[in-house]
Amino acid sequence: MSVLRVQKMSIETSKILGGIGALLMFLGVIPYINSYGAIELIGIILVMVALYDLSRHYNDGSIFNNALYGIVMGVAGVLISVAVVFIAVLTSLTDFLYEVFPDWNGDFTALSGLTPDPSNIDLSNIGLFLGGLFAVLIVLWVFSILVAFFFRRSFGTLSEKSGVGLFSTTGLLLLIGAVLIIIFGVGLILIWISALLLAIAFFQLKPQQEQPTTSTSTPT
């Protein structure tokens, strides 16, 4: 089997895996299609496999590595957000409940049988709780930008190597969406659209064309 044929098979496989994976990420946000994030998770795995194969095909590890850094940043953001929730939000929520229910013993199951005392509620109690929620949102926002930044670098390199400019456009749109995610509708819509553009970009991949060989004859 020739080297060109192997390269063609590699590109075709990456095209199918990446395209289907990106489509799953695009469709995963639609109600009644996604099941606890499983569809999007499968899509991300397929895209990462495609990027790994393409990084080997183009002999440029940054295509996969930058995407992997993005995944790591996403996981780190979720873990830190969970930690902030337990440390800040739940702590302030517990203090808030003690103020509202003076007779509460700390058992959450007993809250339904207690009568709240609104006179103990003040702005400081609510402010601590809202401050914790705001901190979680900020952490998620910052890490979403980091995720998009690394994926943009990955897609930018892939765009240069493959000649498919839509990869670069996808990375830019993803980064803009992450920055604007604080504006709930706008940012999420842009990120959603970027998944569709990524699928189209994958399906535009083409194997490298075999260069024609010219024979030269030496004059006698």
Task: Describe the structure in your own words.
- This protein has one domain (3-203).
- Helix 1 (3-27) runs antiparallel to helix 6 and helix 5 (165-179) runs antiparallel to helix 6 (184-203).
- It is elongated, with a radius of gyration of 25 Å.
- The chain has helices at 3-27, 38-57, 62-100, 123-162, 165-179, 184-203.
- It contains 6 helices and no strands.
- It has 220 residues and is mainly α.
Write the layout of secondary structure elements.
Blueprint: H1 3-27, H2 38-57, H3 62-100, H4 123-162, H5 165-179, H6 184-203
Key terms for this structure?
single chain, 220 residues, mainly alpha, disordered C terminus
* Unreliable sequence segments: 209-220
Number of strands: 0
Query: N-to-C terminal Cα separation, in Å?
Result: 37 Å
- Estimated structural class: mainly alpha
**General shape:** elongated
Helix content: over 70%
Query: Strand-residue fraction?
Result: under 5%
Residue-averaged pLDDT = 83
What is the H/E string? HHHHHH
Reported for the largest beta sheet, the result is: none
Structural domain tally: 1
Tell me the number of helical segments per DSSP (H or I, 4 or more residues long).
6
Based on CA atoms alone, the radius of gyration comes out at: 25 Å
Could you give a quick summary of the protein structure above?
72% of the residues lie in helices and 0% in strands. It is an all-alpha fold and 220 residues long.
